[in-house]
Amino acid sequence: MKTGMISFAHMHAHTYADFLSQRSDVELTAIWDDDVARGKEMAQRYNCQYYSALEQFLQTDISSVIICSENAKHRDHVIASAKAKKHILCEKPIATEIEDAKDMIKACQEENVILQVAYPVRFAPAMVRAKEMIQAGTIGEVVAINGTNHGQMPGGWFVKKELSGGGCAVDHIVHVMDLIRWIVKDEVKSVYAELDTRFYDIDVEDCGIVTLELTSGVIVTIDPSWSRPKTFSTWGDVTMTITGTKGTLSVDAFKQHALYYNDRENRVQQLPWAENMDQQLIDDFVQCVLEGRAPSISGEDGLRTLEVVKAAYRSNLLKKPVLLHDPR
Amino acid sequence: MINVVIVGTGRLGLEHLNAWSAISQARTVGVVSADHNQLKEIRKRHEVLTASDLNDLCRQVDVDVVDFCVPVHLHLNDVELAAHAKKYIIFSGPLGMDMKDYETIIDRCQENHIQLHVCQSLRFSPEYVDARERVLNGAIGNPGVIRLSHRGPRLLKEKRGIFFDLGIYEFDWLRWTFGDVKRVMAKRVSRSGRGELEYALVTLRMENGVIAHVELSQTEDSLFETSFELAGDQGMITNDSKSSSPISLQSMGVASAVGEDILVKTPCQLHLEYVVDSVLAHDQDRSIYDVKQAAIIADAAKQSAETGQPVQVKQSGGVL
User: Fold this and answer.
1) Backbone phi and psi for residue B225, each to the nearest 5 degrees, phi listed first
2) Start and end of every GFO/IDH/MocA-like oxidoreductase domain (chain B) (predicted)?
3) Domain end (from B89, B119, B149)
């Protein structure tokens, strides 16, 4: 199977490309990037062809694309790829506007191509196990979830609203939100958010707390803040404390690490030894395309989480909860 | 020398009896309880008068401080008893079961010129005291997001509600450290019968803009656990009672409890010493004002959980 990469704007593009290259049944043959220097450099690194024109890139014989462009560009890139009959793995969030996400899903349906959204944390072994335990009833009926997706402030286009769609709320609500939907198989009823810019001199929000209620009555908070200090031992975290009627389960996706007290760089660093979740994501997408099966993480999954992000912004403006209609 | 009477001989009363004996400026002159066997045991080990009625005991000996170590639902009745005695009185927190209790008890004390002390325990817990000082000294820069967690066992007979029961301590510490609260959003779930639990997630917006998140959990068989994470634009301070215990014990392959506070002076001891200092200095203690403010925040959280809406808090006068 031949595949191509659309943009290396998002840093995950590097690990995705690395894991593609490791597979014998996949060939990374083409890279498009609107940053010519970056695109040429990556094409050289991965030993493939660089294209400066997207149309030309999409005319090649690749059967799938991985899109890691800036959030606001996902729409155009997904729709163009769908029209060229390419199967698609799109970096999260699916889009910056709900209408864009709907257009993308529609285009992929019409062209009969796979649209998978990159939520790699679903593949973290700890999350897989936690989901199994919860669905087996280990902690009884789930009643509450206290989730975090903290990070360091990423800078660059991530803090330019016209490219990213917003700050930490766009960047970090969606991972935990997707995990919750996946684990408890429920949708969001109401969203309340306190968002603010308190850590950095930037034009988008860098911190907040989002309070949710699911249709079943499960209560949730998600902390998406870019609140990890520069001296923090890693980029951030994804954690959930899940309270049930028979017990409490805490899961930390990045807990499997050794600690490195590094005198050379004057810092303490986490050295992850967990199996790489990005690799599982890439493997899953490739299997999906090869077998022609439905994607594990669909465009609708991307849309549902984007709806929560948009509701959080509205709630933060209104200072009251925003109700989402039950999509089921 | 300050003369102290302890009311109640449960776990708390016995803990306070020990704590008072370590304070040189105070002596326990009496213990009040309906449990005659327990009083007999106490007389064997301590030189104290005992009685089943507080006023009886007050007629026999000069009393400066009455230390009530009784369940919270008895506080309303106790404050009436103390009104006759006109003393310094101590309640271990929480003071009441709801806002009305707090107002009634505080008003009765003010009418009768009783100096009321309530143990807001985080003000005497070394990790919280130290973290607060560092925050105030600028260690984390401008504070951004503050996360607190408090877990404890769910006791079937105590149904006063988690915001007043557990949250009151966190709300008090937040206000003590970051100032008044502007707005509260809270969600709460509870289950009764088997698997009895109460759990709440509270978001507070402080007047100075700080966003605080408080997790409160009461489940069957839970241990007491607390943690905090204080993130600011120049650093972060974290603590977790689970990972900061200096002793862990495995006995015959089973993890065993080592005791909650491995400290020379427990928060309880430090609070009693604080009361002694304020009695000796004849201070007009303002701490009761703070106790009421913490209750106002707890009440706002309760209202928010009931209505599903955020509640604006007016700290000086009550909930708007």
Assistant:
1) -140, 140
2) 129-237
3) B119
How far apart CA A287 and CA A23 sit, in angstroms, is 11
Instruction: Collect all residues of chain B within an 8 Å Cβ-Cβ radius of residue A220.
Output: 187, 201
Distance from CA of B56 to the nearest CA of A (A): 48
Quick one: pLDDT at residue B260? 66
Q: What is the mean pLDDT of residues B256-279?
A: 83
Q: What is the mean pLDDT of residues B60-77?
A: 90
Q: 3-class SS at B157?
A: coil
Cβ–Cβ gap B199/A144 under 8 Å = yes
The alpha-carbon gap from B76 to the nearest alpha carbon of chain A, in Å, equals 33
Distance between CA atoms of A27 and A30, rounded to whole angstroms? 9
Q: Does A157 touch chain B (CB under 8 A)?
A: no
**Using CB atoms within 10 A of its CB, is residue B298 exposed (0-12), middle (13-18) or buried (19+)?**
buried
Q: Which residues, including other chains, have CB under 8 Å from residue B72's CB and lie 6 or more apart?
A: B94, B95, B96, B97, B158, B160
Mean pLDDT value of segment A59-84 = 98
Domain ranges of chain A: 2-113, 121-276+306-323
Using pLDDT thresholds of 50, 70 and 90, give the confidence band for residue A303: very high
Length of chain A: 328
**Chain B nearest C-alpha distance from A296 (Å):** 31
Spatial CA neighbour of A253 closest among A139, A151, A138, A130: A130
How many inter-chain contacts (A to B, CB under 8 Å) are there?
107
Residues of B in contact with A218 (CB under 8 A): 189
CATH (domain of B56): 3.40.50.720
Segments forming the whole domain that contains residue B87:
2-119
Task: State mean pLDDT over B175-198.
Answer: 92
**The tokens 């109460």 sit on which residue?**
B198
Q: Record the pTM.
A: 0.94
Q: Which of A120, A111, A44 is CA-nearest to residue A83?
A: A111
On whether any CB of chain A is under 8 Å from the CB of B235, the answer is yes
**pLDDT > 90: percent of chain B:** 65
**Domain membership flag for residue B98:** yes
A188 three-state secondary structure: strand
CATH class belonging to A2-113: alpha beta
- The pairing of beta strand B181-191 with beta strand B311-314: antiparallel
CB proximity B187 to A under 8 Å: yes
The distance of A203 to chain B (nearest Cα, Å) reads 16
Using a CB-CB cut-off of 8 Å, the residues of chain B touching A268 are none
Count: domains in chain B: 2
**Is the same domain home to B216 and B159?**
yes
* Structure tokens belonging to residue B137: 């000294």
Q: Does B205 touch chain A (CB under 8 A)?
A: yes
Instruction: Tell the CATH superfamily of the A121-276+306-323 domain.
Output: Dihydrodipicolinate Reductase; domain 2 (3.30.360.10)
Q: Does A213 touch chain B (CB under 8 A)?
A: yes
Best mutation site among A189, A223, A250, A317 for testing chain B: the one with the most B CBs within 10 Å? A223
Measured between alpha carbons, how far is B97 from B76 in angstroms, rounded to an integer?
A: 10
Contact between chains at B189 and A219 (C-beta distance less than 8 A): yes
